[in-house]
Amino acid sequence: MDIAKIVNSQITNLEKLKKILFYLVTGILLSSLLLLYLYNNSNYGLFPLILFTVLIIVIVSAISLTLEYFHIVREIRYNELLLQSLMEDKTYV
């Protein structure tokens, strides 16, 4: 694996992060729409619905961001070790 592949893997990590942020924002907007719909059809009031919606958003985003964070960190550490071994090899430098 050469340095170009390492750079490409970093670019794919950024693309994954962009996708996660897109889905996170989309989920928040859809949850807000669901909140407005449920508020019009409920007898409980707005506060429990807001609390429920925020709880769903926080749990789902925390799980997805945690999983993706560990995946990105694992790949970055692997790429750093690979780059260090390539530099120590002296045949690629």
Question: What would you say this structure looks like, in words?
Answer:
The mean pLDDT is 73. The chain has one domain (3-87). It has two helices and no strands. It is mainly α and 93 residues long. The longest helix is centred in the last third of the chain and has 44 residues, at 46-89.
SSE order and pairing:
Layout: H1 3-40, H2 46-89
Helix pairs in contact: 1-2
Name the overall outline.
Answer: rod-shaped
Q: Which sequence of SSEs, written as H and E, runs from N to C?
A: HH
| Rounded average pLDDT | 73
Q: What separation lies between the terminal Cα atoms?
A: 13 Å
Say how many strands there are: 0
Indicate the proportion of strand residues. under 5%
Identify low-pLDDT runs. none
Number of domains: 1
Which structural class is indicated by helix and strand composition? mainly alpha
How is this structure best summarized?
The chain has 93 residues and is mainly α.
List keywords for this structure.
93 residues; mainly alpha; 2 helices; 0% strand; rod-shaped; transmembrane helix; membrane; transmembrane
